[in-house]
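# nightly structure sweep
# worker-07 picked up a monomer target from the shared queue
# config: single-sequence mode, recycle default, output format = structure tokens
# input follows
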Amino acid sequence: MNKSITCAALLALLCPLSQAAGPDEPIDKSEETGEMPVKKAGQLSPFSDAITPEAYTFRMKLPAGTNVRINIRKTGETTEQASIDQSMSGMPDTPDKMRIERDVREHVVRERKISMGKDVTRFYMLGYCAFDDPRMGLNVRRTSVESTYQPLNDYNFPELYWAWPDTRRPDPAAKDGKKPLRIYKNATNTLEVDGETGLPMRFIEGSREHRYTYTQNNEPIRLPQKIQVGLQKVLKRTGRIK
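# output follows
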């Protein structure tokens, strides 16, 4: 039987954690299907020049109990076109069609990505990313802004790392019945943020458009037993727990 445990229960079992830093896990060479931007020359990773989550002038870190859904499609494609394409294919089937779900809870983020026929769920907690890869099996990877596996507990929108305060443009005048917007823009990206809540609404990245929707949900996140055991083994091996 595939037992599971809530992340809160696992945290209670594992805490308090020691501060000893163990060696990183081996590099995961599985394919990435995410919205990773291109690495610039001299960068350790595409996100290595991110500023602290608190320094952004929009909500880079969501309150616990928030679910965000990100639908990615070609820029200019209507919602109706995207719905028809998705109903015909069953799920996004090209790099320009992707669905990302991030469920934010206290100390834990669960992320699900659906793209090109692949459906991958990852759990971010305790400084690690844990997931069960169909080809490579169980993976537990250390997270940091210098690595492929971003600390989603702090950066709930890693695709928006570039939207520093100095990229903010003058706020456009709000049209009748419309919410006020904040606009962030650089040479290749444009971000629209809800002027009242500070939440990202639309991100245009070249030929792709990300649209964000939010719901409130306090249902606990459950860790599959295989991932729970793998995470415990890594934390023991790295000296973070006894």
